[in-house]
Amino acid sequence: MDRTAENQRIVITGIGLAAPNGNTLAEYRRALLEGQSGVEAYEIRYFGKTVAGVCHFDNLKYESRRELRRGTRAGSIAVYCANEAVADSGIDWESFPKERVGVYLGITEHGNVETENEIYQIKQYEYDCSFWSHHHNPRTVANNPAGEVTLNMKITGPHYTLGAACAAGNAGLIQGLQQLRLGEVDLALAGGVSESIHTFGIFAAFAAEGALARHADPARASRPFDTARNGIVVSEGGAVYTLERLSDAKARGARIYGEIVGYGMNSDATDFILPNASRQAECMRKALASARLAPSEIDIVNTHATATVSGDAIEIEALRSVFAECPETYVNNTKSFIGHAMGAAGVLELAGNLPSFQDGIVHPTINVDELDPKCAFPTLVLNKPLEGKDIRVILNNSFGMVGINAVLIVAKYEE
Question: What is the pTM of this model?
Answer without folding.
Answer: 0.97
